Amino acid sequence: MTVLLRRVNRIVLGLAGLVLFLGGGAVLAAGLGLAVPSWWPWSDADDVLLTRSQRQHWRAESWWWPAVIALLGLVVLLTLWWLVVQFRRARLAEVVVDSGDGDAALLRGRALEAVVEADAAAQEGVARARVMLHGRRTAPRTRVALLLEPYASPADALTTLATEALGNARTATGLSALPTEARLRAVKHRARRVT
User: Fold this and answer.
1) What value, to the nearest 5°, has the Cα angle with vertex 123 and ends 118 and 126?
2) For the chain, which end, N or C, has fewer CB atoms within 10 Å of the first or last residue's CB respectively?
3) pLDDT of residue 76
4) CATH 3.30.70.1350: does it fit domain 94-186?
């Protein structure tokens, strides 16, 4: 959902920026008396956006004002929805754990993140680990970012992460699967001199 939201935001903002840039440039060019295409409606510096007759053309129609108000209301609702989606939490607040007695227990997402982070950071060759839970309460997913020491093997770090830190989390929560996206980076360090 977060990746999709980022893409939609970028596309909408890019298109809005392109339309505003091209429209503003064309209006500026016409206002300065520069050459504009023949199909452009405002080709003279004295042209107006809407003439008096265009502004008053639909006012006498009974459907005009309800349609304008409905369209503006829709724009406001879509803008509010977009704003609310921006501030939604991407983190999973809690995970449903089968307690074995038929009832489900709730495990705080931050607690599970902290345990997996501690297990991952305790691995040999890992300088720092960051874990974030997302997805649904019944089917969580994790994003893990590992900062590796210069001597660490990425393959070994991934294997240990999958078998120990994530394996312990799956066992503790009773989940059959815990899909994970892992990102590995190396600590910035100076190159060693070879003599």
Assistant:
1) 90
2) C
3) 93
4) yes
